[in-house]
């Protein structure tokens, strides 16, 4: 079989069985329901952003929820089909989705504590509290639970020793790709999605995105530390042994 088949056992450091139709499936369904209602809110409450270039994808929040939706869709498909392929896709998407959602929550609520006008355009109303939490807190919570409780060591199998480097490169690339994107949208729309961007000079915006990328990298490291604290950490000898067993199990299921 190519990419499907039962995963006979979870990794020894994985807290709960996943993929599974139990807790794993329930978490992925709950997350997808929340993401659906967030997108439905945007469709049901159109504003000037709907008509502008880039739609709501100008907002990092919406980009994050889109990645999270792809991540949890892959996870739910793995729960339903027990597919190793979907499970692997879910875990690699979580490598990006979990840190970015945590950073979004930290930045959003931190800036709002200073001044709502830094993150919400003056001509747009604040979303109702439940939807605000759905946009800016729930994704971080469910992605963190998935990464810590339902995934093997970071990112998709026994702990990858290059994970810090992978995360640093990924975080930097995402931060500056988003900078390029919002500058493109600004060239068409004449405004930035977040008022804070318009208050900064170009050099200051570069600094902001560099700091955001570094924060995402730190968050990724913190998730790995939290994973080890919750689930334990393998010695080098155990890691090599588990890698060999994992590889043999996967290859055996493809024969």
From TrEMBL:
Pfam families with a match to the protein in the record: Far-17a_AIG1 (PF04750)
Membrane topology field: Multi-pass membrane protein
Primary site of residence: membrane
Membrane-crossing segments per the record: 21-39, 59-80, 92-111, 131-151, 163-182, 202-227
Keywords, sorted A to Z: Membrane, Transmembrane, Transmembrane helix
UniProt xrefs under PANTHER family: ANDROGEN-INDUCED PROTEIN 1-RELATED, AT02829P-RELATED
The name this protein goes by in its record: FAR-17a/AIG1-like protein
């Amino acid at each position: 079989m190519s990419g499907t088949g039962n995963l006979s056992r979870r990794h020894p450091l994985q807290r709960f069985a996943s993929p599974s139709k139990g807790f794993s499936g329930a978490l992925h369904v709950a997350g997808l329901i929340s993401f659906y209602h967030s997108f439905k809110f945007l469709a049901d409450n159109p504003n000037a952003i709907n008509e502008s270039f880039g739609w709501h994808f100008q907002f990092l929040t919406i980009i994050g929820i889109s990645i999270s939706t792809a991540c949890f869709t892959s996870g739910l498909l793995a729960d339903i089909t027990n597919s190793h392929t979907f499970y692997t896709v879910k875990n690699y998407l979580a490598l990006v989705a979990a840190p970015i959602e945590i950073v979004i929550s930290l930045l959003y609520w931190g800036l709002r504590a200073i001044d709502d006008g830094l993150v919400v355009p003056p001509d747009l109303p604040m979303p109702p509290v439940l939807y605000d939490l759905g946009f800016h807190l729930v994704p971080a919570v469910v992605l963190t639970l998935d990464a810590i409780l339902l995934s093997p060591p970071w990112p998709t199998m026994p702990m990858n020793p290059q994970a810090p480097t992978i995360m640093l490169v990924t975080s930097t690339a995402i931060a500056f790709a988003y900078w390029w994107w919002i500058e493109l949208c600004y060239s068409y729309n004449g405004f930035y999605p977040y008022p804070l961007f318009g208050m900064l000079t170009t050099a200051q915006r570069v600094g902001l995105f560099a700091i955001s990328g570094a924060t995402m990298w730190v968050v990724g490291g913190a998730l790995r530390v939290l994973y080890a604290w919750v689930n334990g950490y393998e010695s080098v000898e155990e890691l090599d042994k588990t890698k060999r067993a994992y590889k043999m199990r996967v290859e055996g299921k493809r024969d």
